[in-house]
Design a protein that fits this description.
239 residues; alpha/beta; Rossmann fold; 4-stranded parallel sheet; two-stranded parallel ribbon; 11% strand; MaiA/AMDase; Iso_Racemase_Enz_sf; Asp/Glu racemase
Length: 239
């Protein structure tokens, strides 16, 4: 997320003339386990206070699985905690989460059946599938890469994703979730996979970028990152 979002907003700025700044605070995570993810969630409010000091216009909570590990619908509570932390610090800002962004984007696109790639171990991959299905979206097929070390997840080669996506059973699906993880690089492969498979391709990062733009009132105009961020797919989000 810390590399892909600045690149996406650079492309948006190039297309629209808007100017964006990017600020981040990290909650430590070494191994992607249920226990470490729970500890990470407990630090979200402190991180929100840190970034709100910059008087930002929107805050995104970027760990998808940390939120999803807390149970169905947990993104609503996480977004509320982050927004309240920013407000209490004297700099209120709307908050989105990658977990909430992904399920809301898929719902808004009318996707009822999806396939998905994750970097997670089997237990966490099942947890993410269950969370998405809890939002009324069937996960028809999923490939988990079973990488436990968080730094190694960040070093995965996005050029491998097209080959992985070809292995998914895509019969009757509405969309491809190419990376259900903000740590796993995927941006370089979003457009090639979408072009090859003829299906909308979203990731945790592109869904989050889309919701940030929505919160800012800016129409997406980003090239090379799929139809969602090109502005040619218009999700119909419910209130």
């Amino acid at each position: 997320m810390e590399t892909e979002l600045p690149e996406l907003f650079r492309r948006q700025a190039e297309a629209t003339g808007h100017h964006y700044t990017f600020h981040s605070a990290r909650a430590a995570l070494k191994n992607v386990t249920r226990e470490e993810l729970a500890a990470m969630v407990s630090k979200a409010a402190d991180c929100a206070v840190a970034v709100s000091d910059a008087d930002v216009d929107v805050i995104a909570y970027a760990c998808l699985v940390a939120v999803m590990a807390q149970g169905p619908g947990a993104h609503a509570e996480s977004e509320s905690v982050i927004a309240e932390a920013a407000r209490s610090n004297g700099h209120p800002a709307p908050a989105v989460s990658s977990a909430g962004a992904l399920v809301r984007t898929l719902t808004g696109l009318g996707a009822r059946r999806v396939v998905m790639v994750t970097p997670y171990m089997p237990e966490l991959t099942r947890m993410v599938s269950d969370y998405i299905e809890g939002a009324g979206i069937e996960v028809h097929d999923v490939i988990g890469l079973e990488v436990a070390d968080n730094l190694e997840v960040g070093r995965l080669d996005p050029a491998q994703l097209p080959g992985i996506a070809r292995r998914l059973d895509r019969e009757g699906v509405d969309a491809v979730v190419l990376s259900a993880c903000v740590q796993m690089p995927s941006l370089a492969s979003v457009q090639p996979v979408e072009d090859e498979l003829g299906l909308p391709v979203v990731t945790a990062a592109t869904a989050t970028a889309h919701e940030i733009l929505k919160a800012l009132g800016h129409r997406p105009a980003i090239e090379g990152a799929g139809q969602l961020l090109a502005g040619t797919l218009v999700p119909h989000f419910s209130k």
